[in-house]
Amino acid sequence: MNPLQFSFIFLHLTLLLHFSSAAPALTISVTPKTLSKSGDPVHIQWSGVESPSRLDWLGIYSPSTSPNDHFIGYIFLSSLAGWESGSGTVSIPLVNLRSDYQFRIFRWTESEMMNATSFDQDHNPLPGTEHMLVASEEIGFQPGMGPEHVHLALTGRLHEMRVMFVTPDGKNNTVRYGLTEQNLDQVVGTEVSRYEREDMCHPPANDFVGWRDPGYIHDGVMTNLINGKKYYYQVGSDSGGWSDIFSFVTPKTHSKKTVVFLFGDMGTAAPYITFDRTQEESSSTVKWLLRDIEALGDKPTFISHIGDISYARGYSWLWDQFFHQIQPIASRVPYHVCIGNHEYDWPSQPWKPDWASKLYGSDGGGECGVPYSHRFKMPGNSSQVTGTSAPATRNLFYSLDFGVVHFVYMSTETNFLPGSDQYEFLKNDLESVDRQKTPFVVVQGHRPMYSTCNRPKEIPLRKKMIEHIEPLLVKNKVSLVLWGHVHRYERFCPLNNYTCGSLEKNGEDNWEAYPVHIVIGMGGQDWQGQWLQREDHPSDPVFPQPEQSLFRAGEYGYTKLVATKKKLKLFYIGNHDGKLHDMVEIMAPGVAPSAFMEMEAMDCWYYVKNLSLMVLVGFVAYFLGFTSHCRRNVTENSGWTRLKAEDV
């Protein structure tokens, strides 16, 4: 071997040794490259992350051209199995945002975390984007997949059903429907609207971090429907694609029974961390609601979501996440809403009296009701000018009849004082209810008139509502009042100015009761305020239950209302088991309770000694116009049994 050959072999071996010991190349791959529909998972695989750190993170971007700090969400690699090896995989279900996606891996250091200047809603530092390690290729959704965000609503008129949905281009789309899947022989067109970034009132809703194109919102009304029938429908176009075929059941004209599902403050779940907290419990709420709706079969019903709808708070892609989550239920039963603070409140809102200066703030994330007003259309024509270039806020107050119940919705975020449009509406509406047709009246709003949750800044609002709204409720014999905002369940005795009601006898057989107030803000939002402390222990975790509060719980869930001409029942269903946690019965005005009606032993505020006393308590409770129930029968025994008043 000559010296030249030896040198060549030595160099070759040196290079082989160098490259065999070098760190593997950092790679990231994504499959599939094209998704067929919202909710389909994308599989992300990476390898070659050198010296993995617990702060390495995967950023999710849409559109793919977004700057590094404009992610829609992120996942810490250390939350995934095997991250210490520098390799890993994760599957993420994606919602169609009408633009492509990209994924990027970043390194974030301890010192950068300690010196962070940007924080999320919970004051956690947002991950830094200074050191990007690798970026994936772009992926997207196939065209022609049809509209999304399909949801129904009652119009307030017989023989009609509204359907709304979103498309990426706003081109001509129709609704075709009929009595069988094979013959969708009726067709209606849609009106189209959209909103722009400039319509929003404050950041993050009107800056480039929070804004994403919302698409075009279509609104169609199916007409000439036969009452009490099951209809099939489909939305879309030949060019843009058609949705799946959905179905719904129309209300009956003279129904003798009403079933409705009600809750507040649900929000949406997301498969990643984002700028604001998302609501993981909301997916359980939707799961159990779907179970109960399917169990009804071909019986009409609707859903009532009383404020704090998506909790997008200016991060617009969370509206897409929300509508994708509710479509399985909202495409088959009407989905009704009223406005909450997280849809509306912003610093310069037009109605902000001195007594509410600390109440109405920036909870809406700068949306000032714009997405809420465009994405839903409730009965009536209530609206409130914003005082800015933003369009007027809609869906503030309205009412509708459904079976034997008259439902009324109010806004606690806009003027409800005497002289306002809303006050006049409430007064006229409640005074004109036909109690022969709808013997029960249910009023709903977001912020509660009554709650034992300790939120001092809410006290001025409650005082104003008790002063001005409660007299309307009592005078017009409202049966039930439902509130959200407090993320718990709490049922009160029939109330008038903090006083548990006793019945007044008006005529021989006409029994009147104060309204029963119940807080049902346990739909999914996971932040829960504490109960009111004892006055002599303001700093201690001592939370006595006031006598007006008959049952309260921290279990997430929803309520189910079932009413006939004579009796209304409200059931509280918990998310962790899908079972009954509380129940209240309310008799219709003019229905005299029987002295010997059976009463189940439930979680109540009183004691029972034996079965005969239970019957007596049931008799007294019916005189109050309601009967309280709980989850389980109490085993009969000869001793005193304390029945729970709180479910924690």
Automatic annotation (TrEMBL):
Protein name: Purple acid phosphatase
Domain of life from the UniProt record: Eukaryota
Signal sequence coordinates: 1-22
Species of origin: Oldenlandia corymbosa var. corymbosa
Keywords: Glycoprotein, Hydrolase, Membrane, Secreted, Signal, Transmembrane, Transmembrane helix, Zinc
Parts forming coiled coils: none
InterPro entries: Calcineurin-like_PHP, Metallo-depent_PP-like, MPP_PAP, PAPs_C, PAPs_N, Purple_acid_Pase-like_N
TM stretches of this protein: 605-624
Pfam families, per the entry: Metallophos, Metallophos_C, Pur_ac_phosph_N
Source organism phylogeny: Eukaryota, Viridiplantae, Streptophyta, Embryophyta, Tracheophyta
CC per GO annotation: extracellular region
Subcellular localization(s) per the UniProt record: Secreted
Domain Purple acid phosphatase N-terminal: 147-250
